[in-house]
Design brief:
The chain is an alpha+beta fold. It has one domain: 2,3-Dihydroxybiphenyl 1,2-Dioxygenase, domain 1, CATH 3.10.180.10. About 20% of the residues lie in helices and about 35% in strands. Strand 4 and strand 5 form a beta hairpin. The longest helix has 11 residues. The chain binds cobalt (II) ion (CO).
């Protein structure tokens, strides 16, 4: 059911420093920051040949990243995103297996303009999983 790894998201305490590190030290193609007010984050996309890295930084008071950075002050892997062809079919299949979908259970439009859902980390070995319909 799941396809390619779309991205790995890393929460960072200093977006400019992290972007510069990926640009200079790691030699990656780093895009300019993008505010995503609906998701409470500012995102920097880093393009790799086979996937993307998303640097996440809190935006606004109710950012879901804020608590994560409080617990992980030097940053950390926040979630991984797998591609699916049909997000509703994927969700319904996962619900049948007993997995929990976060929020209302209805897909939201994610940072790439495509429908996304998040799955409960406790159901996936402590990893927050995002599904994106491509
Ligand atoms: Co993501």
């Amino acid at each position: 059911m799941i396809g390619r790894l779309n991205h790995v998201a890393i929460a960072v305490p200093d977006l400019e420093a992290a972007s510069e590190q990926y640009r200079s030290a790691l030699g990656a193609k780093v895009n300019p920051p993008q505010d995503e007010p609906d998701h409470g984050v500012t995102v920097v996309f880093i393009e790799l040949p086979n996937t993307k890295i998303e640097l996440l930084y809190p935006l606004g008071e109710n950012s879901p990243i804020k608590g994560f950075l409080d617990k992980n002050p030097s940053g950390g892997i926040h979630h991984i995103c797998y591609e699916v062809d049909d997000i509703i079919a994927a969700r319904d299949h996962l619900l049948e297996t007993g997995a929990r979908v976060l929020g209302t259970g209805e897909p939201k439009i994610g940072a790439h303009g495509k429908p996304v859902l998040f799955l409960h980390p406790k159901d996936f070995n402590g990893t927050l999983v995002e599904l994106e319909q491509v």
